[in-house]
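quick one, three chains, predict together pls
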Amino acid sequence: MTAAAGAAATGVVVAESCSKWYGHVLGVSDVSWTFAGGIVGLLGPNGAGKSTLIKLMGGLIRPSRGALTVYGGDPFVDIEVRRRIGYAPEHEATWDELSALELVTAMARLSGVPAGRADAAARHALAEVGMTGAMHRRVRGFSKGMRQRTKLATAIVHDPDFLLLDEPLTGVDPMARIDIVARIKQLGEAGKTVVVSSHVLYEIEALTSDILVIYRGQVLAEGNVYEIRTLIDRHPHRIRVECDRPHALAAALAGEDHVARISFERGALVLETRDPDRCYDRIASAVLDAELAVTALSSPDNNLGAVFEYLTRDGGRR
Amino acid sequence: MSTGQIHDLGYKRYAGSRRSVATRWRVIMRHQIAMAWKTWWRFKAWLILAVLATGITIALLYAFSTSVFRIFAGLAGERPQFVAVLLPLSLFWYCNIAFFASLFVAVPAVAGDLQSGAFTFYFARSLRPRDYVIGKLAGIAAMLSLIILAGPLALAIARLGLSDNLDQVIALLPTLPRALAIGALGTLIYTAVPLGFSAVVARRGHAIALWVGYYVVFGAMVNALGRASSPLVASLDLAESLRTVALELYDLHMAGRRDLDIPVSAAVISILGQAAIAIGLVVWRVRRAQQTGVGGAS
Amino acid sequence: MNATPTPGPVPAGRAPGAGAAAWTLAGITVTRLFRSKALWLCVLFAALPVGFAVIMHALRVTPFYNDIFVLWRLILALLAAMLVASSIGEDIEDRTGTYLWSRPIARWAVLAGKLCALSPFVVALVVASWCATIGVWTSAAPSAASCLGLAAGAAAACMVAAGISTLVPRHAMALTIGYMLVDNFIAAWPFSLRELMIAHQTTALAGLADDRAIATPLIALAAIAAVWVAIGLLRIRRIEV
């Protein structure tokens, strides 16, 4: 079976009981994870093991125990696997003596872009990240945001199938952030497989709803953020209803067995339920029966922040 | 927009006891020692080499002092002459070990901080430039003195211990302050001068190259120039100057050095002068870093 | 973001061959070298003996080749450590090596590229410094054998530096200097152990030792260099960044 066929059968990334230690320090521990493709957000606090997992996928380090394959091959030894990978590290260090164009051109050539086309590829990649105006300047004088964009250009310059972006939005100004997020989404829509890490929750939320939560070197949760939320059945789901008479709505819902707690905020009622679907149905009928004027209905728990907060609370014990 | 206000987010200013400003150099010193102690290459390897050199020299001192050796050597109970030479000659090993240790401990001290931008961290706190300089010097000197001061001192003590009688012990007692003086000068050389080079450039690699270039290449050149012209020129060679002081204090005059008769006073002045210039460079660099950085020292 | 019209993405073809990768890396390394202070520091160290020679010439001192040759054995050690050991070590220590390790290139090509780029500079600086110094001092050119000896010694020192930098990247420069100083020290011993020392073989090749043969020191230097290159090539395959 070829590497590509193997990948199709098993996923782009397959980690089996993969662990990595740096001496006595744990990087990742016993990670088993299969990633079929698309865009996935690697989420976790600082030091959780996100960068270690990305480096394992990029072939920069090897697992201390277990195995990790990308497109069916070992990225640490298999050059053909690394050819399909584009990696942007989290650190700022680059070869500062070079200009952005020289750096990205060199990376293109080292990635297999023919020498005659490397310059064009580099110019295209730099344009994609909005660095055309500064491409002849040396990296030494770049701001953090410009460095991030240049790193992104080095990752995409050879049009890889699989992008590993380690905290690509750190230090980037808000306008550039929007641009980069849009660009990463485009890459995903174009069929590229993208792994983006961050410890900033809303950055990941803006990119994808598929997440892999890493905490203390272990996979704490994986999948769609909403699916993960529904799996946390022991944790009540909050629903906030803003209406003209919250107390009337509370009276209508107070007897329901799935409602665990009712509280009031200014002009709003906050329900905690163990069965969100039933609760939404009951709210709708109560609003109609009592002829309430609802101005807003939201679920504070249906965002990544709430999921992450819950999953990592008390050291990840659920 | 509402008027400005400060929200209480639960942060409480540390209200416990604080270390006196005058003793903050100790924090820098301890940090310097702790960092050097972390890995084998930085200090432990060189310390072990120094201990080995001391052990071997003491073993030789003992072996040459035994009556069995004297009988076999046909010395009829006389102590061989080279026992007296072992102490000053062992300085060659201590100098080389201290030089290697200085490459790992002293040279990266300031250059590493400049390279990593640690000055911002230091001077965002109530740390004065002199605390930084004294702390660095004290930390490095404490480590290097274990090599170049403690080693010769241990040998001098061993030499006393291996004396034949009390009269000999009394006669050899001045060896102790002499070993201390040589060790102190050696510590000054291998602490202050590399630290000066460390302050000149902001990259560890360049600082190492400058120190090696100065100590080894420049040293060899002024040594050769000294032989061809005036011995005063050769006093710029730090290793040669220290050797001159050591041989003078141990009252040892070697035949091969007749062509390079550096005056002891010139050797001492050269060592002290170069160390003073180096410390001046560190002070200048640190003050400059504080003024151009975040400042805030009080 | 696409303000300037540019051609479309250029997909990579096959992974570059090791030779092409080494060539590209050599180009980058040379460009970086010319823009860094390290080269000028090296030029300074190489120029120091010329100033020394000017004074010696003025003092009308007769050159004592054997003694002053030691100076160039030290200079070649310093330059090899500064350029080769620090270049490889810094890529690993500063983590810029991540850009290389994530690329589809054979890891040994990194070592080959750096060595190809930097060794000629070390050799050229050492030999130029020797020729200039002797020229200024004696108004005559040094012997071809002495130039060959220094060139071969400098090349071997570069290989040693490369090997050490893969073993202990963080302290590569200091350890290379340490190794070469010990090498110089042992080379002065009147024992056969000195045959394993670069300094001794360099001196022998330069025609300044008892044994004036050329083939033996050349083979010995090649063997020492080969051992260290082999260590470097084996080690770099296992290095993680």
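Residues 1-8 of chain A have pLDDT under 50 and may be disordered.
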